[in-house]
Amino acid sequence: MIGKYTCPFYHNSGKVCGKTCMRPEGCSYHWKAKIRTPCIECSKPTGSTSGRCPLHIRGHPPYMAPETLNRGEYTQASDIYSFGMIMYEVFTSYPPYYNIPHNRNLVVSICEGQKPEISYKKSYT
């Protein structure tokens, strides 16, 4: 069987495996040897520490950290980022990215490093 990918893994001897394979992750030996956990939702193997594959990431994109949107990993740092977005809404009275449509373009711009515009409602005292 001829594959369109070449296995990129190294053997213990230091040589590249180089077998042709059908998946970009590597030949069947190396793909099976990689530690994977099943997705909580669909049971597909995933390397994510959250236990969810990229199809089952939960959350509202304006409040999610870029690393969660990119790799689907939930960490303490991503929780702090999300809490910061909640505090942003509390202090400014506007949700994050209120002036941008919430679609795929917003997710891409968040992953590229765009931050929400800081504006606030004037309070009359």
TrEMBL record:
Q: Which domain of life is it from?
A: Eukaryota
The protein depicted here goes by the name: Protein kinase domain-containing protein
In which organism is this protein found?
Diversispora epigaea
Cite a single GO MF annotation: ATP binding
Starting at the broadest rank, the lineage of the source organism is:
Eukaryota, Fungi, Fungi incertae sedis, Mucoromycota, Glomeromycotina
InterPro entries recorded for this chain? Kinase-like_dom_sf, Prot_kinase_dom, Ser-Thr/Tyr_kinase_cat_dom, TKL_Ser/Thr_kinase
Which Pfam families does the annotation name? PK_Tyr_Ser-Thr
Start and end residues of each Protein kinase domain: 1-125
